Amino acid sequence: GSWGKPKMDHLLTIIGDKLNHAAVHVRFGVPMENELTRTFYNNRPGRKYTPQFFLNEQASTTLTADGFLDSTATFDKAIQFANEAYGASVPLLDGVVTKEGNQLKVKYGVQSNMGGLDGYNLAAYLLTSGLQYLQKGFRGSNPIHNNVIVSSADEQYGVPVQTTANTFEREAIFDITALEGEPSILIVLWQKEGQYHFSSNSLRLEVE
Description:
- Helices cover 16% and strands 36% of the residues.
- The protein has helices at residues 4-15, 35-41, 71-85; strands at residues 54-55, 58-59, 92-100, 103-111, 120-129, 131-132, 144-145, 148-152, 159-160, 167-175, 182-193, 196-206.
- Helix 1 (4-15) crosses helix 3.
- It starts with a helix and ends with a strand.
């Protein structure tokens, strides 16, 4: 809305080199909402409202006593979370995407030097950027939306990592015939704790 998107854009100028982000649109009937985004919306611990900033499922959004965004506190938390996660020892991701006609073919995988990969899920998501849609609460012309989640190669949180070794590889094909905007791929390694999924690592693949 009027503060969510501008604040996210500004936040990415500060910590954008330390994370891979995706815009999850829910509520208000916007065209960018789908079953996948609603699943991610419900995967957040604590109070749910929009917009919110989450880093590894940790909420950095901080409100004032009057219910307005506290920009300074929100940014401070986001920077703290990003610095804590950046450079941590996590299983490594790798991948490559090639465009063939109206299809994106993705090869991706995970490797761990820390032991087994039991309890992890590996997922590939199609994102798109450059969408111009009306957004509720946005003041001015229709904003440009980037890194919007479109679909998943498998289930919402991918597939369980199944390997007796320390490497697991997958392949996926995304049809982009009807896709609006410029596509990219986001690979996410999920780990479930209780009822929630938390991202352990991520990798963005640009389409050339």
